[in-house]
User: Fold these one by one.
Assistant:
Number 1:
Amino acid sequence: MGIVSREDWSLHRKGQQAQARHEAKVKEAIRDNLRNVIANDGLILSDGKQVIRIPVHSLDEPHFHFNRGKQKHVGQGKAKTGQVIGRSGDGNSAEGPGDAPGEHVVESEITIDEIEEILFASLELPNLRPKPKTAMQVEGEDWTDVRRRGIQSNLDRKRTFMEAMKRSQRQGALLRITEDDLRFRTYEEVVRPQTGAVIFAMMDVSASMGEFEKYVARTFFFWMERFLSKHYPHVEIRYLVHHTEAAEVTKSDFYRLRESGGTKCSSVYELALQLMEREYPTDAWNVYPMHVSDGDNNGSDNEEVVRIVEKLCESVSLLGYLEVQPNRRASTLSKQLEEVDSPYFRSYRVASRAGILEALLHFFKQGTEGKEAGGR
């Protein structure tokens, strides 16, 4: 008499399944909290190693639990069709202290890289065109082959395990990995063309820009820069600030500068136009001016702003105007910019921190719609 046995391989996968479920829960929590996560104060001006905490709902397996309410349920006692026999509680009722357990919510630590993976998945530079005169050659690596010899860091564990399984089945032997089963990934160095592009980061630093307005502006540019450095590492960024006069500053000063005085937005658009004509001819560059302001511009300057914006839109790949208005009212500048009829002009209005995410999605998506949009 023979005995047939089968090992349950699902037991060996329990740890991997639990880890996969945990990672899926964390990603879901990031997506659900993304508006608040990207507006986290601690991430701005961080070194990229910042870790923050987000709530993740319980990862418990389904199980039976004690009926603390001792209520009758389906199939118990006398009841009429449609009669409500009870409602489940969450253990957090405001009536009395309560004795039921609450929902398990843990705080999971996430890094800025995990946030970027979710946030940047749907972002891209719109209207990015090939510019052959400035096409740069960027070196990269393509994993193209699998071999029996290689360095340990390039070991392909999945293929190695599969080879060991096939050999063991052929030989009718116990599963173990031998040197002949090892498989290593190999790569080839390749050269890819990179299209030239430049971003003009333009920020209003006048006295009318309060703490909230400056915070939204810096947060928007912080994530814009992280996105560009990750997906378009060779894109140049020029930092421009303005009150009644505009000037180019360093990256460090751009995020820390505090100014005062009045507002003349045309000054920064004029500076961007001069830089473009002098250093970034549009037959060789994709140009993206991005301006953030509260819109509290000198009334006599609005027409000049519209004139320069329309001139820029004739050549740029996209011009973006983000207005920060906590009172949710459009400024006179924003109303004046409605006259700009160009598919290469986009504007957006933010009223709270939660609107920063929508602003990023509005500006950095493919398409050429130029209508103004209002956010949270």
Note: The chain has a mean pLDDT of 78.
Number 2:
Amino acid sequence: MVRNLNERRWRRPVFGVFAALAAAAAVVIIPKLFPAYHAPQRDGSSESSATAALAEAERAIDPDGRVWPDAHSRLGGVAERVVALDVSPNGDVVGSAGTDGILRLWSSAGDALFSVEAHAGLGVSAVVFSPDGNSLISGGGDSTLKRWDVQSGTQSGPSLEGHEHPVTAVSVSPNGGLIASSGKETRIILWDAKASRPVRILNGHRDLVNDVSFSPSGSLLASADASGRTIVWNTTSGSVEQMYNGTGGSINKVRFSKDGRYLVMGADDGQVIVWDVANAHVHKVLSGHGSSIVSIAVGPDSTTVATAALDNSVMIWELETGRQLNGYIEPSGAVYAMAFAPGGKLLTGGVGHDITLRDPMGKVETR
């Protein structure tokens, strides 16, 4: 069922008490969550992340902070958290999904456009826009992929059926011709987007695949699994081009930089591995999070990456040097989904129902 909604809500938190509590909590927990940034060869930073995190935590709850309040509860769902976010290529539309199984589209101003009960109410795990911005592709607990018309909110074309278990991740090639998906299984399916059929099955993982990501050229696909293995595939031949076998447990998230130079991997031990794609080796290992990485978003200029972990920490890094540029503790809980808008603003969603738009180097955006 599609519900057309035109509503706009802005929340202005009670700053005085909340800020004091958040600052006090930050003083206690941030030193544990944001240890000093050592290993110069690996990360190149000597700046105290605790200081940056505390300052940002205070700014993040500015009374004029812009949020989309209760994004995944006020429209009829009761989501425990937001699990997926994407921004259309032109930045005009935001797609989001929560554990309530509801898919939602928003204008960039925060107005709700429509909501859809997708994937038989079994949960939506992934959302990604097509390169032309006309469709939003979702993957869910019913083991299918579905495409939604952004204008009408209706499903366009048949569901893509082929996975035997719930879908975990979806990525679309830059030209829109291929869709890659993973499920709670060891294989990856490449789909012909126009013909709505599988064109290739990629086998090579030794554990459940957590994430997939196309390179900017579309010639490569990265996939990561629960054993700590990341594979870079040739999308034309289906052959393995590169492989990384990590030692920090599961690799939960993978993303190519927008220029294709780096592949960023987030591990279960809290480390972020920056892989040099051209030379097939580790470029930097970024240390600072205190628990599993659950979300990664690469900046539109290819110079920065945002990472989030289960300890509620969010960090902004410089890809080339590995230097931490900013960091903060999200007061409402872990950030499970992030996406950069074309202009460089960062959308975040996670525990709680809110979707927040912020300057990654400053406070929540005000209007």
Note: The longest helix spans residues 15-33.
Number 3:
Amino acid sequence: MYVFKPQGVCPAEIHFALENNAIKDVRMVGGGCIGNSQLIAGLLEGMDVDKALPFLRGIVCRNGTSCPDQLGKALLMAQNGEIAEADPITTGIEEAGELLKLAVISEAMGDSEGIERVYALSKAEGAQALYSLGNLTRGGGDGADDAAVELAVKKGIRVVQGPIDRMIALGRFGDHGAEVSVKQANRDRLLITPLIRMFNLGDRHGVAFHGGFIQDLPGFSDFGPYASEILSVCYLSDYLRDESVFPAMETMLKHFSASIVLFGTTGEWKHVRLGEVDMINVGSLRSGEFYRYALIEWTKGGVVVQFRSTPVEN
């Protein structure tokens, strides 16, 4: 997959793939005319680059260029080796400045009421940011996913992709119809949501991700950023459930880039401190008749982790 950042047009990015010089999976991300973008993608699917270029280059819409013109530029650059295929294991770099207290949820599954509730409670308790560790959406096709994505944007929630989010973003959610029920703009938002986020809590550096599904994605490297954290937590320790391997994990801590590791996946709530590293498994947002979240605070004496709950209001 190539990711091209066009100039002078509405979309922030143009995504496409090339297979034996044939164009695949064209997508205008982050703006533009959705209908025209779908038409362009449909007409170009499987077409040879050399055949397509004369139809694309030179079309003017605004600023002396257009989406087709920029796509033509991107295709030519890819063909000539001037741009490389993008690494799909995307990371999000947080703004400058450190946090002292943050809140964390996971597996929100389109529950906007729960997200709103935890956001308000954690703010009242002094949390400076709310992280969502994947599966913000659930693919229900009832508008809940759109509402959850838009709420996350509105509130500035720091989201990482989970496997459901990724399938919806790519339009591959099986027979559930989520690929057509979720608004294109929100699918685009999910698509550019990072798989991994980094943060600073006091003098500690942290990493947040959903779980081991990242390892199965094209582009994952056992030697890439935060790979040691992902492999140790998700596979070596089976998400901290196999305590017999903790001594072996301690010997691997020297390879960690982060001293706080946040992850979701299992639905369980657990905090393990090995050496100087705090590993925190955050469970599902809703558990029975309660909403649950984690509060994590930096103090001079170390990181303090609290698992909180609040009743669901019927």
Note: The first helix runs from residue 34 to 44.
